[in-house]
Amino acid sequence: MANRMILNETSYIGAGAISNIITEVKIRGYKKALVVTDKDLIKFNVACKVTDLLKDNKLNFEIFDNVKANPTISVVKSGLEKFKETGADYLIAIGGGSSIDTAKAIAIIINNPEFSDVRSLEGAVITNNKCVPIIAVPTTAGTAAEVTINYVITDEERKRKFVCVDPHDIPVIAIVDSEMMSSMPKGLTAATGMDALTHAIEGYITKGAWELTDTLHLKAIEIISRSLRSAVANDPKGREDMALGQYVAGMGFSNVGLGLVHGMAHPLGAFYDTPHGIANAVILPYVMEYNAESTGEKYREIARVMGVSGVDNMSQDEYRKSAIDAVKKLSQDVEIPKVLSEIGVLEEDLEALSQSAMADACTPGNPREATLKDILDVYKKAFK
Questions:
Q1: Is 98 within 8 Å of 68 (Cβ atoms)?
Q2: Alpha-carbon distances of 57 from 32, 48, 52, 121, 278, rounded to whole Å
Q3: In the chain, what is the greatest distance between 2 CA atoms, to the nearest angstrom?
Q4: Strand pairing report for 134-138 and 123-124
Q5: Would the pTM of this model clear 0.70, i.e. be above it?
């Protein structure tokens, strides 16, 4: 069996990388951009780092800034109308996963209008046409949406998130510039960083994992675990390392999938609008405990790259516990809540959350098969 790898056509990684947007736009002959972002990034002068470049170089653009956390079908439809009105021929997505996911949905539907209901994009859908070109400029170090073939949309009416997977939605250019992330507040830095760690760990143990993605995921775990604390402290080197680490994780998991952590986190976003990184971070150690028996020797390598010493002299139970403890310690150090009750989850919703998680597109990738009862049990452990 052949393993598939899909990555950006071009990526620029490092401080100051946004300057390359101008060269790429001119070389590719793009005429007018729709800049997809959110109002806070406009308000706090983050998006202007890019739009000022466009102005200075006399490149045409208009702004769609109605993106919100956990973007919805209605937001996507609003962005579609804006794209058509402006006469744009490409998109620049500036923000976290929400902005980039919104841009992906807009870009796919513009070139594949038969999916204009948005809901029909759910799951592994291979559309007929590549999306409108996207230049993705992440402002958080976590989602890796700039390098993945996945995006997540919230169905407000049905109170659920759905995952879309399509090789045609990947941004043509990724601009991973840590200077675009320097204004992230401490809490957001911690949450998105733990999201990136979740991507790396789930990608490493998922059913579809293979040698090349294992290499990427282990390196991502190493980079993230050594740099997240300093990134939260707003150290420039920590910021730059986290920007790289989350991108490396995205290179891997985009091509092999995720697992039960994401399957259980998505319903939290749909039910309570919980930030995705927080949802992942709280659930991660509990799912790691559930998965331990199905991971072979992989937790030993996770513990090793997270800085645990003496793993080669540990028993299987010991190195598995060490890996989980290392994740818990990192989460604690960056002040992530420990249990679901701390983030507003209601005990009476656990059964409904479990049903939604069971149906989530990420859940089948989990290394250990999960029943509805298993998922409910994990939610209950994570709740208290």
A1: yes
A2: 13, 14, 9, 36, 39
A3: 64
A4: unpaired
A5: yes
Contact present, 77 and 110 (Cβ < 8 Å): no
- CA-CA distances (angstroms) from residue 72 to 103, 155, 161, 162, 174? 12, 6, 9, 10, 23
The Cα–Cα gap between 125 and 68 comes to: 24
The H or E element containing residue 95 is: strand 90-95
What tokens does 152 get? 């997540």
Please give the structure tokens belonging to residue 379: 């939610």
CA atoms within 13 A on the CB side of 48: 7
- Pull the structure tokens for residue 249: 């994780």
238 and 184 in contact (C-beta within 8 Å)? no
**Which tokens is 160 given?**
């659920």
How many CB atoms sit inside 10 A of residue 236's CB? 13
Q: Is 14 left (phi over 0), alpha (psi -120 to 50) or beta?
A: left
Q: At CA 185, angle to CA 179 and CA 191, rounded to 5?
A: 100
Q: CA distances (Å), 92 to each of 138, 291, 307, in order? A: 10, 39, 38
Residue 228 C-beta-side C-alpha neighbours within 13 Å: 33
Measure the CA–CA gap between 355 and 376, rounded to whole angstroms. Answer: 9
Q: What's the one-letter identity of residue 344?
A: G
Q: What confidence tens digit (pLDDT) does each residue in 158-198 have? A: 888 899 999 999 999 999 999 999 888 999 999 999 999 99
**Number of neighbours of residue 14 by Cβ within 10 angstroms:** 14
Q: State the Cα–Cα distance between residues 83 and 87, nearest whole angstrom.
A: 6
81-115: per-residue pLDDT in tens? 999 999 999 999 999 999 999 999 999 999 999 99
Across 136-171, b (16+ Cβ under 10 Å) vs e yields: bbbbbbbbbbbbbbbbbbbbeeeebbbbbbbebbbb
For 297, residues 6+ apart whose C-beta sits below 8 A from its C-beta are 316
Closest to 161 (Cα-Cα) out of 264, 64, 48? 264
Residue 318's alpha-carbon distances to 148, 298, 312, 315, 333, in angstroms, are 34, 13, 10, 5, 22
